[in-house]
Write a structure and sequence with these properties.
Chain A is an alpha/beta fold and 301 residues long. In chain A, 35% of the residues lie in helices and 24% in strands. Chain A has ten helices and 13 strands. In chain A, strands 5-6-7-3-8-9 form a six-stranded mixed sheet, with helices on both faces. A four-stranded antiparallel sheet of chain A has the order 11-12-10-13, with no helix packed on it. The radius of gyration of chain A is 24 Å and the shape is elongated. The mean pLDDT of chain A is 86. With 391 residues, chain B is of the alpha/beta class. Chain B has a five-stranded mixed sheet, with helices on both faces. Chain B is elongated. Mean pLDDT of chain B is 79; it is low at 44-49 and 175-186. The chains are: A alpha/beta (301), B alpha/beta (391). The A-B interface holds A 12, 47, 50-52, 54, 72-74, 76-85, 89, 92-94, 96-99, 102, 125, 141 and B 1, 3, 5-7, 9-10, 13-14, 17-18, 217-220, 222-229, 389-391.
Chain lengths: 301, 391
């Protein structure tokens, strides 16, 4: 759906490229998470994809086998609608801007109102909506033209968990209906729960890209945390320390860079001493850890 | 409905929802027209019964002096105050603005009047005297002195005195405004309604530019561009409702001049019979004002900039364009500059209709200038939008 080939973009007067020879592919139907610290180039890439700006160098192609110019919609980070207009008035206006004719307006508006749960707020002015409802209206406007490519720029900033969960469900449903979605967010758990494929941008360059589970597996954490039912007695302690370098603090046993076979041996040893296991954590990696390991902990813009 | 139709409908709704701004837009010029028409009634009308006070000090004696004193005490619309203090004290009072003028007749005035070297009567005006009032006062004094001069000098002496330029030396005036202007003065209402109406029309730049700035800041402008809406479509979508709003404003303000001002004791605005010319001027003046507003809206970055820029620029245009001070009493340089003020073109166009009995044939020149100005603004706006997008 998206084919970005060696794209470079620099803002006038800027000291460095906002995007530097960036190449990226997003397959059709994908729910793609675009991550990156502030100033990494995410919004710039979205602006290039929507045609608001043109790349200084490189090629950018959007299309699929069915349509050379698919319907695109962008849901910006800002509340990009008119606060003095009601929900329906906003939707009617943007539907008109999409060139939807008067007969197709009501179904289109009813569809997006239902998809974003705005049925009870249709006649309320946008300025009076809560933060969560504003985000939903912002998304609803983006769904009016039944986009084949939906670009979402941090669509859940500053809202409560319920609204966030609703918006994520809506996005999943849109994606399940066949829309390719590019989703940018700073909420890692959100991206991890939503996206199947991710790309990580840093300083205008793509530093990682691939299936989310593959990337997590490659960066798995081989640290063990084993919490026993009771602190190990002297015999068990002696047996455990001979199996692997580990630390024991009360009932909690910790080991770094523990190989698979050593884990099996440790568990067998615990069971042999008749001690129960209360909690076990091994090999888990989350997106936040992966993100920080890729981009570092240094503060950005 | 077309995209432009949707944009115009949206803009109309936004305007109707901001009723504070609308109220200001309509009430401000109405208040201007009422206040200025009534306040300036005395300046423009000789039958109002308002008197301008002045001190009269004479160092001369004799029959000519007595006649001049009598004439000056009988000046219509002006009143001599008793001058019990000395010259310096009287001048100080005039300087402080307590009295508008001090007129001093020099010693030997009567004796020198018929000679080639007359002694001029001296006028000192308060610094903030309204220029039109000062013009009128000077004119009255000149006429009085000229009559005396012609009575006193007779036969061959006139020719000698005129040859020596004596008539020009009869009056000495201390003022920056010394330029007279032939032709009739507009009445208070006739001048003020179109003048303040034009002033108000150009203030449309404030709501228009603040709305546009908000759209840019909220991201709706980028969203619309991202949806493939062309900048020209956005421009036309804004232009249409604001043009209609401005025309509504024109109609309401003319109605204020025709009906409300007379109710409050002022004169009545006479619209004349050139309805076609009036409609033409209203449309082209609105087009110029809205096009100018669109340019301002694109040049500024914040609402604060929009408000301050529009306020100051409009005041300057109004000052130069004869809205606040009639052009005929301006210094020469400003008079030249006024030829380039769109407000002056609009004002002259309306005055062609209201005062000079003209129609399209008389107003077309000003109308054409306003159309050229409007299209220049629209072109500049389009180029600016294109340049910013490319940037």
């Amino acid at each position: 759906m998206i084919d970005v080939e060696a794209v470079t973009f620099r803002y006038p007067g800027a000291a460095r490229d906002a995007l530097h020879e960036l190449s990226l592919q997003v397959p059709p139907g994908c729910l793609f998470g675009l991550l990156g610290p502030n100033g990494s180039g995410k919004t710039t890439l979205i602006s290039l994809l929507t045609g608001l700006m043109r790349p200084s160098a490189g090629n950018l192609h959007i299309g699929n086998a069915r349509h050379a110019s698919p319907r695109i919609a962008v849901v910006p980070q800002e509340y990009a609608f008119y606060p003095r207009l009601s929900v329906t008035e906003n939707l009617r206006f943007f539907a008109g801007m999409h060139g939807l004719n008067t007969t197709s307006h009501p179904p289109a508006i009813a569809r997006v109102v239902a998809a974003t749960g705005l049925e009870d707020f249709r006649h309320i002015r946008a300025a009076r909506l809560s933060g969560g409802l504003k985000r939903r209206l912002n998304l609803a406007i983006g769904l009016l033209n039944e986009p084949e490519l939906l670009l979402l720029d941090e669509p859940t900033v500053g809202i409560d968990p319920q609204s966030r969960s609703f918006i994520l469900d809506s996005i999943r449903a849109v994606n399940a209906a066949g829309t390719t979605v590019v989703y940018t967010s700073h909420y890692m758990e959100e991206v991890e729960a939503l996206c199947t494929r991710i790309g990580v941008l840093d300083q205008g360059q793509l530093i990682a890209c691939g299936e989310l589970q593959d990337l997590l597996r490659q960066n798995r954490n081989a640290t063990l945390m084993l919490d026993l039912d009771a602190p190990p007695d002297a015999a068990l302690r002696d047996a455990l320390v001979q199996l692997a370098p580990l630390t024991i603090d009360g009932s909690v046993i910790r080991a770094r860079a523990l190989p698979h076979n050593a884990l099996d041996a440790l568990l067998a040893c615990v069971r042999a001493h008749g001690v129960g296991i209360a909690r076990l954590q091994y090999g888990q990696s989350n997106l936040e850890t992966l993100f920080l390991s890729l981009t570092g902990r240094g503060l950005r813009d | 409905m077309s995209r432009i139709g949707h944009l115009a409908a949206k803009e109309t709704l936004l305007l109707l929802r901001d009723w504070h701004a609308l109220l200001l837009l309509f009430l401000m010029p109405a208040a201007f027209i009422l206040v200025m028409s009534l306040a300036l009634q005395g300046q423009f009308s000789a039958r109002s019964g308002v008197h301008i006070d002045f001190y009269l000090l004479s160092h001369d004696s004799g029959a000519t002096n007595a006649k001049l004193l009598h004439e000056l005490r009988s000046l219509r619309g002006f009143r001599v105050l008793p001058a019990s203090a000395d010259a310096d004290q009287l001048a100080a009072r005039v300087r402080a603005g307590k009295v508008q003028f001090l007129v001093t007749i020099p010693a030997g005035f009567g004796a020198a009047l018929a000679t080639a070297m007359p002694k001029p009567v001296d006028i000192v005006a308060t610094p903030d005297v309204p220029p039109a009032v000062y013009q009128l006062f000077q004119a009255r004094l000149r006429a009085t002195l000229a009559r005396l001069y012609l009575t006193r000098a007779g036969g061959p002496a006139i020719a000698t005195a005129i040859k020596a330029g004596a008539a020009d030396k009869l009056l000495s005036a201390h003022t920056l405004y010394g330029r007279g202007h032939a032709g009739k003065l507009p009445s208070s209402v006739q001048q003020n309604v179109p003048a303040w109406l034009l002033f108000a029309m150009f203030f449309i730049a404030i709501p228009l530019s603040t709305t546009w700035v908000a759209e840019r800041q909220q991201g709706t402008y980028a969203r619309l561009l991202g949806m493939g809406i062309k900048p020209a479509t956005l421009l036309i979508g804004k232009l249409i409702p604001y043009l209609v709003l401005n025309l509504v404003q024109v109609v309401l303000m003319l109605l204020v001049g025709v009906y409300l001002v007379p109710l409050l004791g002022g004169g009545q605005l006479t619209l004349g019979h050139a309805w076609g010319a009036l409609a033409l001027m209203a449309i082209v003046a609105s087009l110029a004002a809205v096009s100018y507003a669109l340019l301002v809206a694109n040049l500024v970055s914040t609402s604060e900039q929009a408000t301050i820029f529009t306020g100051v620029a409009n005041l300057l245009m109004a000052a130069v364009g004869g809205i606040m001070v009639p052009v005929f009493i301006m210094p020469h340089a400003l008079q030249t500059l006024s030829h380039y003020s769109p407000m002056q073109w609009g004002l002259q166009g309306f005055l062609d209709i209201f005062l000079r009995g003209g129609g399209i044939g008389m107003a077309w020149n000003e109308a054409a200038k306003l159309v050229v100005f409007a299209f220049t603004c629209l072109l500049a706006t389009g180029l600016w939008m294109h340049w910013r997008r490319a940037k």
